[in-house]
Amino acid sequence: MANMRFPDEIPSAFGGGGGGSIFDMAGTSCEGSGGDKWGSLGFMDLLGIHQDFVAPSLFDSFQPSILPPSSPPLPVFHHHDDDILHELHTDSKQQHLNHQAGLLSPASTVPESSEVLNNPATPNSSSISSSSNELAANDEQTKAGDDEDKTKKPLKPKKKNPKRQREPRFAFMTKSDIDHLDDGYRWRKYGQKAVKNSPYPRSYYRCTTAGCGVKKRVERSSDDPTIVVTTYEGQHTHPCPIMPRGAIGIAPDSSAFGAPSFIIPQPMYLNHQQQQQQQQLQPYIYNSTPSLNITTASSNIIHPSFPGFLQEKPRFSNPNPSALSHRDHGLLQDIVPTPMRTEAKEEDQ
DNA sequence: CGAGTTTGACCGGCGC
DNA sequence: GCGCCGGTCAAACTCG
After folding, report:
1. pLDDT in tens, A255-275
2. Where is the composition biased (Basic residues) (predicted)?
3. Strand B: which bases are under 7 Å from protein Cβ?
4. What distance, in Å, lies between the first and last C-alpha atoms of chain A?
5. Residues contacting strand B at CB < 7 A?
C-alpha cells in the first residue's frame, strides 16, 4: 500500500477491509419505488436523516430507474464508496481516471479512506454551490482573453479558486444499456469528453434545479461496455422532483422485505475463485435481492443522497461474511468488484 | 420559445 | 516551463 494510490473513484475495493461501505444496487429513483416502505419515506427524507452522520457531502441520488425495456432490470450497482473516498484523499484526477478506465486496481489494500468518508470534515456542505466559487473568482479571468479574441469565446471567467474543495464523490456502477439513468432528478448535460484509455466518452451532468450544484459524471466502463459508471458529486439541496414509483429495475414483488429486488445478470467477470474471494472480501456488499440493502462497514458511510432504497437500512450492517454469503449466493457473484475485475483483466492479458 | 444537447475551446492541475 | 488531460464553459443547435 505504500506506494499504491487509491483510485479515486472507482476503485478499489470495495470495502475491503472493512472499510468501505457498499452498496450496490439498483434501483429506483429517488423515492424508492419499492414500496410503501419507501413511499412514506422519501429518498430525500432519508437524506436528511442520514445527513447527520454523513459528511455533508455526498452525493445524491441515482439510480437507474429506467432500464431498457427489453432487458430485465438489472442494474448492478457497485458502490464505490471507497472510491470516492479515495478521490477525496488524493484528488488526483488522472489517477482516478485511469482507474476508472481500467477499473481499478487490486483491492489488496484497503484504504482507510473509509474514515475519510465518515469524516464530514471533508467537504463542507457549503461547497455545494461550487459554482459560486467559480464564478467568483473570475474577474480577472479574462486575462487571457484579452489577447485579442482568442478565436471565439469571450473567455469566461473560470474559477480560480486555489484549491477549490471538491465535494465528495460517490461512484457506482450499473449494468445498463443506457448511459444516463433516471434517478429522479433532472440533469442537464454540460459537457462530454473522450476518456483516455477508453473508447467511451464521459458525460457531465449538472442538476438543473436552481441552487443545486450537484453534478454527476457518467461513463461506460472500458472493460465492459454494459457497465455504466456514474459518479455523483455534491448534495442536492432540494427534494427529488420526480418520484417514479415503479421505477424500472425494481421488481415490484420483491422479496422478503418487500423491497425492490434486482435481477442480476450472469456473473460477469469473476471466476469461481474470484467470486469466493469476493465474498470474503466484501461481506458488506449486499446482494441484490435484498432489496437494496446497503450496508456499510460503518453506518455513517451511507450517503445522504442515496436513494432511499439504497439506504434502507443496513440490515446487514453487521456484516458477517458467512451470514451474507448464503444470501449472496448467486447474487454476489454478479456484483463486480472493481478490483476483482482488474485482476480478471490482468489475467486475461 | 424555452429547455436540453452538442461540441470545440479554454482553464487549471499535475507530471515530466 | 511545457504538455497532457480532466473539467467546464458557452455558442450553436435540436427538440418538443
Report:
1. 333 333 333 333 333 344 343
2. 153-163
3. 3-15
4. 23
5. A 91-94, 141-145, 150-153, 155-156, 158-160, 162-163, 180, 186-193, 203, 205, 208
Which three three-digit cell numbers place residue A106?
487490486
Answer whether A10's CB lies under 8 Å from A229's CB.
Answer: yes
State mean pLDDT over A113-117: 34
* pLDDT of residue A30 exceeding 70: no
Distance between the alpha carbon (CA) of A144 and the C1' atom of B12, Å: 13
Reported as a single tens digit per residue, the pLDDT across A123-177 is 333 333 333 333 333 333 333 333 334 344 444 444 444 445 566 677 777 877 7
Residue A188: per-residue pLDDT: 87
**Bridge partners for A261 per DSSP:** A251
Q: pLDDT tens digits, residue range A212-221?
A: 778 888 888 8
Q: Is the pLDDT of residue A282 over 50?
A: no
- Identify nearest nucleotide to residue A134 by CA to C1′ distance: C8
Give kind and range of the element (H or E) at residue A291.
Answer: none
Q: Which nucleotide is nearest to A162 (CA to C1')?
A: B12
- State, as a whole number of angstroms, the distance between the CA of A13 and the C1' of C3: 32
Predicted pLDDT of residue A224: 80
CA(A14)–C1'(B14) in Å?
27
CA at A43, C1' at C16: how many angstroms apart? 30
| Exposure string for A5-43, b = 16+ CB within 10 A, e = fewer | bbbbbbbbbbbbbbbbbbbbbbbbbbbbbbbebbeebbb
Q: What is the DSSP string of A39-107?
A: HHS-HHHHHHHHHTTS-S------------TTSPP----EE-HHHHHHHHHH--HHHHHHHHHHT---T
Average pLDDT over residues A90-108: 37
